[in-house]
Amino acid sequence: MRQRYKIDGSEIKRILEMHDRENPNKRLILEQDDKLKEELQTLINNKCFPTRTPPNPIPPGWIQTPIVVDMSSTNPKYKSAIKLESKNTLFKYRYFFINKTAYEYDDDKTKKNFHRVKSSSGADATWECDAGQQTDLQAKLTDLKTREGWVEYSELDSKGMSRQGADSGRYGEPKIFDLGNGKKVKLYKAPGKEGITKTGYTPEQTNTIKKYEDKGYKLADDLTNDEKLSWVPQKISIPGLPESFEMYVDPEQIAKTAGIENAFKTASESQDQTLKSCKGKLTLYYDAFKGKKRFPQSTIRAMREKVQACVDQHDPKWGGLRPGRFRDMANAMRGGSGGPSSYGEDSYWKLN
Q: Is 306 domain-assigned?
């Protein structure tokens, strides 16, 4: 009859400790591996290796920051490395080892031919981390705020601005400053008070604001204390800014201005786009999407707004010999067959 033995936890622990005492080399190797990884991570923390600027759109699996990875080598110096994408080629990686050597694959997918990186002279390349040249990011951020007048999101209220204004687009697109270690801050500039120069707005937005200022309107930041008590907000249509964007006007001026309808008509007509130009914009936008082309985020956002305005104005009555072609393109870019998805990686192309 088979006998069954029950071993309690303390006995299991004692047996494992005996096993460890009989394998000191294994424990030493593990400690050495952990120490190597810590040294490599310290190099990353000290900004020896840069964070790559993300492409637009960001492809799946792309690595922006340098990371410590395990390697298959049995050589203690090559068991771990810092993995960092090449500056010039997407998904092309280099591996930096603790002994100052750098390696790469001919093909990262197949892991073919792991070899030393060569310098411009043809010799085996080595890397250096000069602590004296490392950028003090916090000091750089402070200088940026002091010299150029940028304001962190958390400081808006104390600087006479507002978080609500930032969220509504009043200060334009924020500047993203990377402090490293996954910490990023949003920086804003208040609209300036030097004539038509409204820092934080695009040239097109600045020109539109100037037209309203010529009619007596003011931005909230330009109001005097007395004007803040009496002037009334008016929703103003500014390209690229939210529908809630407002400028302020003297109520007495509204009462005295008999030609307000004409001003509205002029402002409205200035936003009209010809059928011919809209066809060109829609075709260019559609072809770029189908060709999977990449653009800076600010560029594609501005183009999308222009195409959206065209579609709002002319769709579905495109006119001409082939109006159906433009209707099909517009429907596709709204998320129809062959167009961008609503929640996928290509959703930023989608029109409303």
A: yes
Instruction: Say yes or no: 141 and 128 in one domain.
Output: no
Distance separating alpha carbons of residues 57 and 270, to the nearest angstrom: 33
Which of 243, 269, 295 is the last residue before a domain boundary? 269
According to DSSP, the residues that pair with 115 across neighbouring strands are: 104
Q: For every one of its 352 residues, what pLDDT tens digit does the chain have, with 9 covering 90 and above? A: 455 555 555 666 566 666 555 555 566 667 778 888 888 887 887 777 877 777 777 777 777 788 999 998 888 889 999 998 887 777 788 999 998 899 999 888 888 889 998 887 888 888 876 544 445 667 778 877 876 778 899 888 888 778 877 887 777 778 888 765 557 789 887 664 333 234 456 677 778 888 888 888 888 777 787 787 888 888 888 776 667 778 888 877 765 554 556 666 666 666 667 888 888 888 899 998 888 888 887 788 888 888 888 888 888 777 777 788 888 888 888 888 888 887 777 888 888 8
* Cα-to-chain-centroid distance, residue 73: 37
Q: Do residues 128 and 144 both lie within one domain?
A: no
Tokens of 86: 């090449």
- The answer as to whether 112 is a domain residue is yes
Would you say residue 226 lies in a domain?
yes
Can you give the pTM of this predicted structure? 0.34
- 195 within a domain of the structure (yes/no): no
Distances (CA, A) of 101 to 39, 107, 108, 138, 252: 15, 19, 18, 30, 75
Range of the domain at 241: 203-269
One domain, residues 32 and 114: yes
